[in-house]
Amino acid sequence: MGISLSPGAVPTDVQRLAARARAGDKQAQLELGERFEAGDEVPADRRRAIRLYRMAASDSGGPLWVYSPPVGGEARGRVIAVQRESYRSGLPAAKGRLSSLSNEASK
User: Which of 50, 67, 70, 87 has its CA 20 to 30 A from that of 98?
Assistant: First the structure.
């Protein structure tokens, strides 16, 4: 996420936010992206903000496709869908920030 987790490198709340973002917390990715966009307790970095917004805006989870090799006398293996319990939709706010930054860049 571009944040040092070394003690004292950045404020503790920013380190916690970065750790949550690295773990896949979409809300933390959005909030950290906003900090990078505004330069709030971190250096302003539009590229990092966009990367974090993309992560927060993307859908994750859903079915996982697993290949099962042939068993016994079967000639072919199978592909099986395994439903994950942790499907997460992308955050609309992150999608909005991405759209806004794209519109600014095209001007």
Answer: 87
Q: Note whether 5 and 15 are within 8 A (CB).
A: yes
Q: Are 30 and 59 in contact (CB under 8 A)?
A: no
pLDDT digits (tens, 9 = 90+) for 4-24: 767 778 888 999 899 899 888
How many other C-beta atoms lie within 10 A of the C-beta of residue 64? 10
Q: Is the pLDDT of residue 61 over 70?
A: no
The answer to whether residue 27 scores a pLDDT higher than 90 is: yes
**45: alpha, beta or left? (left if phi > 0; alpha if psi -120 to 50):** beta
Two tokens, residue 6: 């070394």
d(CA 80, CA 27): 31
pTM for the model stands at 0.72
Find where tokens 């992150």 sit.
94
Report how far apart, in Å, the C-alpha atoms of 95 and of each of 47, 56, 87 are: 15, 8, 18
Distance CA(11)–CA(3), nearest Å, equals: 10
